[in-house]
Structure formats: C-alpha cells, structure tokens
C-alpha cells in the first residue's frame, strides 16, 4: 500500500498547531522590522579542533578517502568564494555616482562569502554535527562542524554507535566491518526570526532542506532520515532542543578501525557560544512558531516514512492531465551536480536566452526524474515530495504559459492557469521574473498543508529545500542562472499556475540566462571537489 501522510486529528495538543502557525504567517505584515540582531555563528571554544584539508586554489584536489572525503562533503556548507562588489558595481546597481561621498565613506566595497548553498537572507541557520565511529585520521566521537573555519570541534570522544542505533534503529554489524557514522543536520530556528518573524520558522526549515539536498549529492551510499526522534538526536549532541534541534540525519557507512564496544563517553560537551541572539529572538518569537517547534520536539506525531519501492500506481497524487497535448522534453543530459556546487550563486540579474534543453535538464534533476544518488532517489519517492510547476515567460523552444512537470515521464503539461501575468513577487526587479521562467516548488497531492501534522509539515519543508538546491545546482551545471525567492504571493501564483485545490506553492526560483555582473571581483577559496 502507498504510504499515506499523517493527517489530523493527531495526538492531543497537536491539532491545529500548523494551521495556527500558517495563519500567523499570512497575517504578518510585509514590512521588515527596522532593526534586528545579526546572526552569529556557533562555536565550542576550548574543544579540541581538527582542521580539515583545505583545497585552496592551486592545491592538489581532494581525494575520495579519509579526511579528504569528509572535507569535500562538508565544504558543501563551508566558504567557497569571496566576492567583492566594487564601488563601480554598487553605483551601477543603485544609480548613485561612485565618486560621491556615500561610497567613499560608507560603502567602499561590499564583501560576501559565498557557499555552495543559498539561505533565506543569508542567515544560514543550519548546523552540521558528525557522529563518527572512528578511522585512522579521525578518532571516534561526536563533532561539531565549524563551517566558518572549516574544522571539526570535538564534543565527546568514544564511539557513538550505540546512541546511533537507538536513534536510527539497530542494523546488526555487517560482515565487511562497515560501521555506522552519521551527519546530523540541526536547525537554529530563531536565528532569522528577528528579521523574518513567524515566516522565518518555515524559511529556516527550507534552509536545512537545502543543506540536506547539497550533502546528499555527494554521498552516494548514504541513507537519509527525515525528522528523526528529535529528543534522542538532540540528547546525543547535548542540544537544548528549544533553541536548536536536529531536523535530519544522513547515515554514512564507514569502515571503523576502533574497538566497536568502547564505553560511551558521558562527559557533557563544552558550552557553545554564538546562541545569545537566538535566545533573545526566541523570547520575542511568534507564539505560534514556538508552539509548532515545541509540538515537533515533543515527538507527539510520527514522521511520514518513504517507501523505497512504492508500487508504481502512476501519478496518483498528481492532478489529472488536461486534454491539451504535453510538451515532450529533450532527452536528459548527464550533469555533475557535485562539481557544480563550488560555483553556485544566486543571480541578481537575469537575461533572456534560456533554452528548452536547459530547462528540461533542470526539471529532470530537481523534480526527481533523474536522481544522482540513492538517498536523493528515496527523497523523490517520499509521499510528501513536492512537485514542480512553471510560469514560462521567455524560453527558446517553449510557448509562454503555465505548465506542470511530470517527473515520471519527463513531460511538461500545459496547465489551466492564466500563465504569467504580473510577477508574483516584488522583492526583485521585474525583469528578473520575465526574462526566463519562474519555477514553483508546490506542496500537494496529500491533504492541504494546514492539515498536516507538525512533523509532516517539517518533512515537507525539508523536501522543498532539497528541491531548491537541486534546482540551483542543475542551473549551475547547465549554465543557467537562478535565484530562490521565499517572499511572493502564493494566491497570485496559484491562480497563474492553475493549481488544483489543496496545492500550495512553497517557494519559487527565478531562472534565466546569466548576465555579466558589473563591478564584481570573485576570488575562489577552494577548488571544485567533484570527486567527493
Ligand atoms: C529558501 C530561500 C528563500 C530565499 N528568498 C529570497 C527572497 O525572497 N528574496 C531574495 O532576494 N533572495 C532570496 N533568497 C536568496 C538568498 O538571499 C541568498 O541565497 C543569500 O543571500 C546568499 O547568497 P547566494 O545564494 O548568492 O550565495 C532565498 C534563498 C533561499 C534558500
């Protein structure tokens, strides 16, 4: 039987939590608060640190073994490039003369650290932890990844295997000596809430999904666990689950070289720094977002599990195809998504010239038609996996209009929507929305979003984030440009797309041909690591 998403009524206290949260998001004003605390990165001062190999420009590329393998994987979240927007570039963007006093005094240049993943408002609320069974290069233990300095901070020594077994279910010891290690992806849900208020909770979960999607492109043998028991996972890392909590786990088979049954280390991890602003924001956070977070942490409802081999019942959850003939998309080309990560960036300007072949590849990799790893394939089969819809303005070889992507058959179905009218967002220049295509990541095919249980709601947003990152990587790989946008009118989008009842656009990506970025100086910090 096809696994069904959990629906209301759930356990006592859970009912209505998601709906109240969504109402609060809907009611919040579009204006950004005048001031809010800046995001701080988290560190564990005093804990032993293991620097990870840093493949700077000109250095030999990382290999696929030992610490190099971990380094390549974690660079998916580490700094990859420094970009400087010169005063000439700022002048071009703002229309202010670069010779004026403003640039000389206030904005001599604008520096940005670029990473493989985008994040709403560049808040990066995700944290990565490593529960490691031990190898010649890295002793067994639980580590925090300091993504600013690209190093591991030891929180606890000794093998975490027993705790991982409790968290993920025992597997038995494989004969080949492979042991279980894991990356645990946590979210700091209040890191962005000073700026984004209630909406920030949703945005932060998507951001962790983006990170999940990125890491899964580089872990061919991994198993993914969406929304594991948060209490057990947070305990393993010594987290205060209200301030920071584990949202997903990536299980990595590793070959351990340590005694498997060493007693677990019960020493509490050192105190972290960097969470003060999160706690301040939590004190001021939207009560419905806090209630939603607490409901998931309390573990009152079960996570929706993906069946790795669901029966092929056709697109049961998809709306029926319209009578118009579908557009047959060009054959999918082979793309190196892992290699594309180092150069990914969110476009701030788009040009016309996107071709149908490029769009076809982007949809195939992002929509689940072509999964590059087993874990990504599992995600694409999840009952809550979102679908992709498009508002096409200018794509060479495709008439403008509204379309639904069918990942099973790699087709575009014209939809009953009005097609692109006015852009559904005003956070970027109009030409960004009209130069190519706007791709929407749409929840649907299950009960309406407001009726999902809190845990299913989290899973949906993690899956959405993974699709965002796959879209961004596929764009980079085919030479297209993209910008994810969280702030847009879902009602306008639903109308223009012709979405069936119960379908909700969660995030959109503006796609087009890249434009030269005037006044921009970019320095690569790391080489590409496509052999990860
Ligand atoms: C889920 C999500 C939502 C976003 N929403 C917006 C948005 O509404 N407007 C915008 O200009 N950028 C948006 N962005 C892009 C971020 O601002 C961008 O990723 C961040 O500034 C880092 O820059 P980079 O992606 O170029 O590295 C979003 C990114 C993500 C992942």
Automatic annotation (TrEMBL):
Residues 29-60, 254-273, 302-328 are annotated as: Disordered. Residues 48-60 have a biased composition (Pro residues). Signal peptide: none annotated. It comes from the Bacteria. GO terms for molecular function: oxidoreductase activity. Coiled coil: none annotated. PANTHER family: NITROREDUCTASE MJ1384-RELATED (PTHR43745). This is Nitroreductase. It comes from Polymorphospora rubra. The lineage of its organism: Bacteria, Bacillati, Actinomycetota, Actinomycetes, Micromonosporales.
């Amino acid at each position: 039987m096809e696994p069904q998403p959990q629906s209301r009524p759930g356990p006592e206290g859970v009912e209505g939590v998601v709906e109240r949260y969504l109402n609060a998001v809907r009611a919040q004003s579009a204006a950004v608060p005048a001031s809010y605390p800046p995001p701080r990165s988290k560190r564990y001062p005093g804990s032993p640190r293991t620097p990870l190999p840093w493949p700077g420009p000109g250095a030999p590329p990382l290999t696929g073994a030992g610490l190099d393998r971990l380094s390549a994987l974690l660079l998916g979240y580490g700094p990859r490039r420094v970009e400087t927007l010169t005063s000439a570039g700022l002048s071009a963007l703002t229309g202010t003369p670069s010779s004026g006093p403003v640039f000389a005094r206030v904005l001599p240049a604008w520096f940005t650290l670029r990473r493989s993943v985008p994040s709403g408002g560049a808040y990066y609320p995700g944290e990565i932890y490593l529960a490691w069974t031990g190898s010649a290069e890295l002793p067994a233990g639980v580590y925090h990844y300091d993504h600013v300095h690209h190093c591991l901070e030891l929180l606890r020594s000794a093998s975490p295997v027993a705790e991982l077994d409790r968290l993920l279910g025992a597997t038995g010891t494989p004969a080949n000596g492979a042991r279980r290690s894991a990356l645990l992806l946590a979210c700091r849900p209040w890191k962005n809430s000073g700026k984004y208020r209630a909406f920030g909770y949703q945005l932060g979960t998507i951001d962790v999904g983006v990170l999940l999607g990125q890491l899964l492109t580089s872990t061919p043998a991994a198993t993914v666990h969406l929304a594991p028991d948060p209490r057990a996972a947070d305990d393993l890392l010594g987290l205060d689950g209200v301030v920071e909590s584990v949202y997903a786990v990536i299980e990595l088979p590793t070959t351990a070289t340590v005694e498997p049954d060493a007693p677990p280390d019960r020493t509490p991890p050192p105190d972290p720094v960097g969470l003060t602003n999160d706690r301040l924001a939590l004190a001021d956070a939207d009560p419905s977002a806090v209630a939603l977070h607490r409901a998931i942490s309390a573990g009152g409802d079960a996570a929706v599990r993906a069946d790795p081999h669901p029966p092929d019942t056709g697109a049961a959850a998809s709306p029926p195809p319209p009578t118009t003939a579908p557009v047959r998309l060009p054959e999918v080309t082979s793309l190196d998504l892992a290699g594309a990560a180092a150069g990914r960036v969110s476009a701030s300007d788009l040009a016309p010239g996107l071709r149908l072949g490029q769009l076809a590849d982007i949809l195939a990799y992002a929509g689940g038609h072509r999964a590059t790893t087993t874990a990504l394939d599992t995600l694409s089969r999840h009952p809550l996996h979102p679908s992709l819809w498009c508002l096409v303005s200018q794509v060479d070889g495709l008439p403008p209009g509204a379309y639904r992507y069918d990942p099973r058959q790699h087709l575009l179905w014209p939809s009953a929507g009005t097609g692109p009218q006015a852009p559904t967002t005003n956070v970027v220049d109009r030409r960004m929305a009209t130069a190519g295509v706007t791709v929407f990541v749409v929840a649907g095919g299950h009960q309406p979003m407001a009726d999902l249980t809190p845990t299913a709601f989290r899973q949906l947003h993690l899956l959405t984030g993974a699709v965002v990152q796959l879209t961004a990587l596929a764009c980079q790989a085919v030479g297209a440009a993209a910008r994810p946008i969280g702030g847009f009118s879902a009602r306008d989008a639903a109308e223009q797309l012709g979405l069936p009842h119960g379908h909700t656009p969660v995030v959109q990506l503006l796609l087009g041909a890249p434009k030269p970025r005037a006044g921009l100086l970019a320095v690569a910090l790391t080489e590409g690591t496509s052999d990860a």
